[in-house]
């Protein structure tokens, strides 16, 4: 029976809860809002299944294999604008839906709770587009995915690398099913759902129509904004230097404990595809002029034969260029390999304060100051004068790594 003694040893994938034959496991939130399994000793029949599917207890060994890499941009301008980067996820999802398949991804549930759910038509894909930098509640999505596979339907499951490894462990031999396609992302980390809830109160999300972490409406892809979408004239857009949630995410003060020592960060993965941002096509191809400038491009690493099999269908929906996989993982890909750093002192102070006053803590740790306003102003000026890309490149050169 699974018991969590150390929170750094659980990614919250829910594989154990989904596999339990007697429903003895419940996923319950801790004070940070992260879900952990707790098993009912009265109901448990000691079958050991929960331990056998846990991706932490049964880690995948990484070994090199042949990969292909592309940079791609969806041809549909509306889908591209709605997506975080180049809309690669939607191109993959559409190819699965076209064959009568089902697509699982992270979207919003009631009151903007981030949850995993499924879509059966392309109109429902909007909910999955645009990254939500908060850990999702997987609920029974692994069991639902298995049910669809058993019915003979094609299934696409998209999520963080730990979620995809958890799903494949849960499916066991069924993970080999030709009908299953998996997509993961290069994953910085996931933020606390409790912090997200406090942020929702601060922005009065109850009166918002949509919340978008990487909105391209105002300043396109390179300087995408957090958008609180209300009736058009009342929407609020903020960049990463002023928006509280984006600052909390990039400050690494509120990530899931395991994210600070994540072992799922690697190049050779169990998924079929890995997606991540491509900031500048000219870093990878001489043919960069064919992509719409600053509209967003996704890097895609293809790991499997199955992935290669459906690639033509995906690429037919996109402007694309084949690139060298070694280049793909070398440029601006720190998050593919290294866990986020943890400042123990700031972490402890943040959570001590958050326990007493969640919203006050966010305002205190991420205040609007003269410096943040100035940075925001300068970024906007750089964007309007067309030198934003150049300044970013210089910034990256100086720091040795591009800031997102
Ligand atoms: C938590 C998180 C951290 C990320 N960190 C990085 C990074 O450090 N560097 C980098 O280059 N790219 C990172 N990405 C990936 C990047 O933001 C884009 O998702 C990627 O470029 C694909 O864009 P797209 O336009 O093809 O897909 P989109 O249309 O934006 O589709 C988004 C996809 O991400 C999934 N997704 C959204 N939110 C979550 C969530 N909370 N949990 C699980 N899956 C989710 C959706 O199900 C969908 O499959 C991260 C994404 C997430 C969700
Ligand atoms: S040992 Fe079996 S019955 Fe007990 S919690 Fe784990 S999966 Fe459920
Ligand atoms: S299976 Fe997933 S949720 Fe369950 S203990 Fe392991 S990591 Fe945690
Ligand atoms: S950083 Fe690692 S542990 Fe954290 S959500 Fe991403 S893949 Fe999972």
Structure characterization notes:
- There is one protein chain.
- With 404 residues, the chain is an alpha+beta fold.
- 33% of the residues lie in helices and 18% in strands.
- The protein is built from 15 helices and 13 strands.
- The chain has an eight-stranded mixed sheet, with helices on both faces. A three-stranded antiparallel sheet has the order 8-9-10, with no helix packed on it. The chain has a two-stranded antiparallel sheet with strand order 1-2.
- The structure holds flavin-adenine dinucleotide and iron/sulfur cluster (SF4) (3 copies).
- One iron/sulfur cluster binds at residues 1-2, 19-20, 22, 24-25, 39, 44-50.
Strand-pairing-aware structural class: alpha+beta
As a whole number of angstroms, the C-alpha radius of gyration is 21 Å
* Major sheet details: 8 strands, mixed
**Main sheet: strand order:** 5-4-6-7-11-12-3-13
Please give the share of residues in helix: 25-40%
Number of helices: 15
Terminal CA distance: 41 Å
Shape: globular
* Unreliably modeled segments: none
Mean pLDDT: 94
**Beta fraction of the residues?**
15-25%
**Order of SSEs:** HEEHEHHEEHEHEHEEEHEEHEHHHHHH
Oligomer: single chain
């Amino acid at each position: 029976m699974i018991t969590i003694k150390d929170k750094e040893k659980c990614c919250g994938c829910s594989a154990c809860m989904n596999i339990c034959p007697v429903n003895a496991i419940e996923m319950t939130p801790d004070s940070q809002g992260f879900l952990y399994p707790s098993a009912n000793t009265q109901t448990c029949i000691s079958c050991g299944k929960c331990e056998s599917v846990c991706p932490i207890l049964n880690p995948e060994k990484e070994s090199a294999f042949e990969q292909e890499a592309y940079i791609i941009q969806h041809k549909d301008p509306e889908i591209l604008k709605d997506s975080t980067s180049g809309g690669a996820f939607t191109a993959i999802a559409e190819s699965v839906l076209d064959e009568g398949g089902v697509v699982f991804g992270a979207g919003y549930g009631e009151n903007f709770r981030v949850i995993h759910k499924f879509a059966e038509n392309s109109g429902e894909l909007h909910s999955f587009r645009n990254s939500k930098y908060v850990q999702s509640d997987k609920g029974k999505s692994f069991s639902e995915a298995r049910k669809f596979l058993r019915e003979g339907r094609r299934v696409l499951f998209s999520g963080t690398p730990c979620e995809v490894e958890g799903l494949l462990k849960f499916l066991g031999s069924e993970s080999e099913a030709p009908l299953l396609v998996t997509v993961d992302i290069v994953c910085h980390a996931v933020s606390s759902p409790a912090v997200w809830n406090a942020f929702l109160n601060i922005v009065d999300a109850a009166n918002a129509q949509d919340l978008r972490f990487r909105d391209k409406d105002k300043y396109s892809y390179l300087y995408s904004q957090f958008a609180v979408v209300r009736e058009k004239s009342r929407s609020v857009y903020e960049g990463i230097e002023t928006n509280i949630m984006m600052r909390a995410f990039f400050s690494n003060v509120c990530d899931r404990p395991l994210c600070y020592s994540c072992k799922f960060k690697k190049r050779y993965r169990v998924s079929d595809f890995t997606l991540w941002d491509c900031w500048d096509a000219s870093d990878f191809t001489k043919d960069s002029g064919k992509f719409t400038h600053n509209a967003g491009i996704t890097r895609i690493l293809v790991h499997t034969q199955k992935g290669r099999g459906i690639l033509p269908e995906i690429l037919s929906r996109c402007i694309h260029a084949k690139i060298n996989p070694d280049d793909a993982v070398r440029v601006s890909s720190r998050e593919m390999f290294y866990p986020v750093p943890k400042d123990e002192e700031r972490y402890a102070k943040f959570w001590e304060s958050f326990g007493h006053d969640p919203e006050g803590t966010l305002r205190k740790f991420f205040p609007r100051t003269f410096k943040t306003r100035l940075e925001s102003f300068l970024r906007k000026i750089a964007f309007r004068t067309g030198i934003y890309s150049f300044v970013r490149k210089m910034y990256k050169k100086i720091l040795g790594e591009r800031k997102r």
